[in-house]
Amino acid sequence: MSRIRQHTRGTRRLAAAGVAVTTATLLAATLSPAAHADGRPTRATAIENAASALLAHAAGLGLTSAEDTGVRDVIVDKDGTQHVRYDRTYRGLPVLGGDFVVHLASDGGYRGADRATRTRIALSSLTPRVSGPKAAALAVDALRAAGSGGRLKQVKARPELVVDALHGAPRLAWRTTAAGLDSLGNPVARTVLTDARTGARIDSWDSIETATGDGKSLYSSTVPLETTQSGSSYQLKDPTRGNTYTGDAAGKTDLCIFGICISRAPATLFTDADNHWGTGTTADRASAAVDAQYGTDETWDYYKNVHGRSGIAGDGKGSYNRVHYGNKYNNAFWDDSCFCMTYGDGDGTTFGPLVALDVAGHEMSHGVTSKTAALTYSGESGGLNEATSDILGTMVEWYANNSSDTGDYLIGEQIVKPGFGKAALRFMDKPSRDGSSADYWSSSVGNLDVHYSSGVANHFAYLLAEGSGAKTINGVAYDSPTYNGSTVTGIGRDKVGKIWYRALTVYMTSSTNYKAARTATLDAAKDLYGAGGTEYNAVAAAWSAVNVN
After folding, report:
1. Which is it for strands 187-195 and 201-206: parallel, antiparallel or unpaired?
2. Cα-flanking dihedrals φ and ψ of residue 463, to 5°?
3. DSSP 8-state symbol, 325
4. Backbone angles phi, psi at 297, to 5 degrees
5. Which of 249, 104, 90 is nearest to 163 (CA)?
6. Long-range contacts of 31-39 (CB under 8 A, 24+ apart)
7. Is-contact 434 421, C-beta < 8 A?
8. pLDDT average, residue stretch 382-410
9. Based on C-alpha coordinates, what's the Rg of the chain?
């Protein structure tokens, strides 16, 4: 799901440098302690340091008096190094590709920045020649052409004027999300970027990213659950993980994207009398809820215990799940607008309920991406967005160490039915096994559907973790080839997860492509394990093995 921009309030312009920073940000930095007890700078101090860096380096960062900035994310390393991620507006309009990350030394000194685009923004006019209603109509046409035909119901579209700096020279554009319900009453949505002067389509992409008691789950056997006692009964709400909870959507649907609300499905909190949930079968509606809550728990624990991230947004707040969504809905998705995870029951022929552990990890990792690099959901950036969720969702599955759903490099293997015709949705060791995904990079890979262009990064991650050639792991046979005929030696999945997470949260931006992802992961490997070492060289070798040089 595309991230809804959170505008910062109370901006104060520093006219001398032509940069706007938030008054609230500067005040918080002033009133907060400068360092933690261990000597590391606080988040507020990092923001203050970054604000000073913006003033000193505005020209180098391409900032002008027409542009404002807002902090999206902050990371402070154990050694005190700071990384502050910004979004940008131009004369009040969101800038697609305007995001950047400022890197600071432990003493607050400026080290450099990673920018989504380097083109200077200077538009002669912010008045569109194409009207908003015309842009909306074009987006609805694109939604119908994407496969829904003329059977859509309750179609709505909302255009938003933006500056597009992602696709060549900056230009005024309409970003429009068209949404509706298909013939089964399930939501479909597509975001279309339209040139506001000519009406030409610039880009388009799917807007729905596809996706202590105990409980008997559908896929993971009996699992422990932290719940909340309420009177004589229990709620499927976990107070130890930010009050994450799971509710029943009761077959209903909603669609709220960029403020478009057609209908809102419920999330009626599951309750139980004895704190033993589900039966492990679809006959009990609570069984799917057990899987969903368990997937949330394991994803929370993975990010917190492995990467030090508390919650999807890094703020310690929990999300929530909705199960039994829609009518035979063959999808699961993360939605920023509700900060929630939603699961369909599947049609029973190609898919069962989509509540498997790696699906949960995959979809909630979309939430992490949206709060960090915000990789654009099209082109090579879109493939990297999907691959990030495959890679980190797979790491969640390995982290859980569940004997009923053992770790593997297959995506969605638990949810597929015989009617699907394949053993999994995707295969990381050789992505082309699914019949559509790319094993290696080529100049045309960005033209593929993002679920298929993701194959290049998935293949890289597998090679980096396990190496090339034939092998059997946890009873699953793999045979991973290389583009250049090289032999790659793996460094283990734990290191791969750490390298990819750091690259995502520190170095990648909305426009990162495969070439830039190579650089980002090499920088991450250097930070974590040193330059020129085994891990650094393995990252380089694995990218070369998938033809990213």
Report:
1. antiparallel
2. -60, -40
3. E
4. -60, -50
5. 90
6. 39/80
7. no
8. 97
9. 23
The predicted-structure confidence for 529-549, as pLDDT tens digits, reads as follows 999 999 999 999 999 999 999
Give the residue from 253, 249, 261 showing the smallest Cα distance to 179: 261
The rounded distance, in Å, linking the Cα atoms of 143 and 180 is: 9
Residue 334: how many CB atoms within 10 A of its CB? 27
**Sequence-separated contacts (24+) of 528-533 with Cβ below 8 Å:** 528/495, 528/498, 528/499, 528/502, 529/495
57-71, 262-276, 491-505: which is most confident = 491-505
Per-position DSSP letters for 127-181, written without gaps between them: --SS-HHHHHHHHHHHHIIIIITT--EEEEEEEEEEEE-SSSS-EEEEEEEEEEE
Q: Which residue has the tokens 């829609």?
A: 326
Q: How far apart are the first and last CA of the chain?
A: 30
For the cut 80, the answer to whether the pLDDT of residue 147 exceeds it is: no
494-510 burial by CB neighbour count: b if 16+ within 10 A, else e?
Answer: ebbbbbbbbbbbbbbbb
SS3 185: coil
Cα–Cα distance measured from residue 512 to residue 545, given in angstroms and rounded to the nearest whole number: 20
- Of the candidates 63, 77, 23, 26, the residue with the CA atom closest to the CA atom of residue 47: 26
Write the DSSP string, 216-280: E-SSS-EEEE--EEETTEEESEEGGGTTEEEEE-TT----EETTEES-----EE-EESSSEE--S
Q: Distance between CA atoms of 379 and 167, rounded to whole angstroms?
A: 11
Other Cβ atoms closer than 10 A to 161:
17
Catalytic residues, by residue number, are 363, 451
Reported as half-sphere exposure (CB side, CA atoms, 13 A), residue 171 has a value of 20
Write the CA distances from 285 to 82, 127, 134, 282, 295, integer angstroms.
46, 52, 44, 6, 16
Strands 469-473 and 340-344, bridge-based pairing: unpaired
Supply the DSSP symbol for 506: I
Residue 21, number of CB atoms within 10 A of its CB: 26
Inter-axis angle of helices 285-307 and 493-502, to 10 degrees? 80
- Cβ within 8 Å of residue 433, ≥6 positions away: 422, 427
Q: How many CB atoms lie within 10 A of CB 233?
A: 13
Lowest-confidence pick of 224-228, 429-433, 490-494: 224-228
One-letter amino acid identity for 173?
Answer: A
For strands 93-96 and 153-164, give the pairing: parallel
What does each C-alpha distance from 544 to 363, 463, 484, 516 come to in angstroms?
Answer: 28, 11, 7, 13
The alpha carbon torsion through 173, 174, 175, 179 (nearest 10 deg) reads: -160
Amino acid at 448: L
